[in-house]
């Protein structure tokens, strides 16, 4: 057996693994875990919208810390981290072999899947590290991390441009997420024929509302990064927690934050619908 046939056989085995029931289960578990995180972040954001409820971070670190405080919290974190790792593996399989759907084999789609695989791998690592006892990992402040990264980047040659372009990309991605959600682009990824009319209506409510809220948070965070670059002040950069709190500083007071928080909860529920109906 020559090296070419061995390579082809290895690729075939990898492709079969990517299309296996186990990989599909990993992806669905990842969507369920993403839903848990967003629902918790949404509820934490609801708390900080009202007086006396702002003691905890409304970000992934706050959600992880909230889980850790519950009975069997460490066990739950191990399960959550493993589920997110499953999402990373599933996204990696999409990057290598393409996902479900007629256009998911395009190079752009596969590149986006690769980026998501890296992101979910980082999230899984942070959650599992926190479960293992590293309280500075998964439970760290997104605000401090954002400011530290911005400060370091601003110190590089051309740092202002790097931070500014990065912020603009994040802001643009947020708008893209929101617009696609409002256009119900997620339909092509779901098994709509398996849904009842009531379920499909719930999917659209949570998908459109949740996606728009999630996109708004990304867009705002990107805008703050652009401001930090223009003014050369790392403290102007904000993580998820400070970005959410900034919605309460608008002329409508805490009510915009309440709306965004409910939207994040909705996105978490939408993620659970994905765990059931996603084409994987």
From TrEMBL:
<feature type="transmembrane region" description="Helical">
    <location>
        <begin position="252"/>
        <end position="273"/>
    </location>
</feature>
<feature type="domain" description="DUF1206">
    <location>
        <begin position="113"/>
        <end position="184"/>
    </location>
</feature>
<feature type="domain" description="DUF1206">
    <location>
        <begin position="29"/>
        <end position="97"/>
    </location>
</feature>
<feature type="transmembrane region" description="Helical">
    <location>
        <begin position="203"/>
        <end position="230"/>
    </location>
</feature>
<keyword id="KW-0812">Transmembrane</keyword>
<keyword id="KW-0472">Membrane</keyword>
<feature type="transmembrane region" description="Helical">
    <location>
        <begin position="72"/>
        <end position="92"/>
    </location>
</feature>
<feature type="transmembrane region" description="Helical">
    <location>
        <begin position="31"/>
        <end position="52"/>
    </location>
</feature>
<feature type="domain" description="DUF1206">
    <location>
        <begin position="209"/>
        <end position="278"/>
    </location>
</feature>
<dbReference type="InterPro" id="IPR009597">
    <property type="entry name" value="DUF1206"/>
</dbReference>
<keyword id="KW-1133">Transmembrane helix</keyword>
<feature type="transmembrane region" description="Helical">
    <location>
        <begin position="161"/>
        <end position="182"/>
    </location>
</feature>
<feature type="transmembrane region" description="Helical">
    <location>
        <begin position="113"/>
        <end position="132"/>
    </location>
</feature>
<protein>
    <submittedName>
        <fullName>DUF1206 domain-containing protein</fullName>
    </submittedName>
</protein>
<dbReference type="Pfam" id="PF06724">
    <property type="entry name" value="DUF1206"/>
</dbReference>
């Amino acid at each position: 057996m020559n090296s070419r046939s061995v390579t082809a056989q290895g690729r075939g085995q990898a492709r079969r693994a990517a299309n296996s029931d186990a990989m599909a289960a990993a992806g669905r578990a990842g969507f369920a875990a993403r839903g848990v995180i967003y629902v918790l972040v949404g509820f934490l954001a609801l708390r900080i919208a009202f007086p006396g409820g702002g003691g905890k971070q409304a970000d992934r670190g706050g959600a992880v810390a909230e889980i850790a405080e519950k009975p069997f919290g460490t066990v739950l974190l191990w399960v959550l981290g493993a589920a997110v790792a499953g999402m990373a593996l599933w996204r990696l399989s999409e990057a290598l072999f393409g996902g479900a759907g007629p256009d998911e084999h395009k190079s752009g789609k596969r590149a986006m899947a690769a980026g998501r695989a890296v992101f979910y791998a980082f999230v899984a690592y942070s959650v599992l590290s926190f479960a293992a006892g590293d309280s500075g990992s998964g439970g760290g402040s997104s605000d401090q991390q954002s400011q530290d990264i911005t400060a370091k980047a601003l110190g590089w040659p051309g740092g202002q441009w790097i931070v500014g372009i990065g912020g603009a990309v994040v802001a643009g991605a947020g708008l893209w997420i929101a617009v696609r959600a409002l256009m119900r682009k997620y339909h092509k990824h779901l098994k709509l024929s398996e849904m009842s009319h009531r379920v499909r209506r719930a999917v659209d409510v949570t998908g459109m509302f949740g996606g728009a809220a999630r996109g708004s948070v990304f867009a705002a965070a990107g805008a703050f990064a652009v401001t930090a670059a223009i003014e050369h002040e790392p403290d102007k950069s904000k993580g998820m927690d400070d970005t959410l709190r900034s919605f309460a500083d608008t002329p409508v007071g805490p009510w915009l934050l309440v709306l965004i928080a409910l939207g994040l909860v909705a996105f978490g529920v939408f993620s659970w619908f994905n765990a059931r109906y996603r084409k994987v």
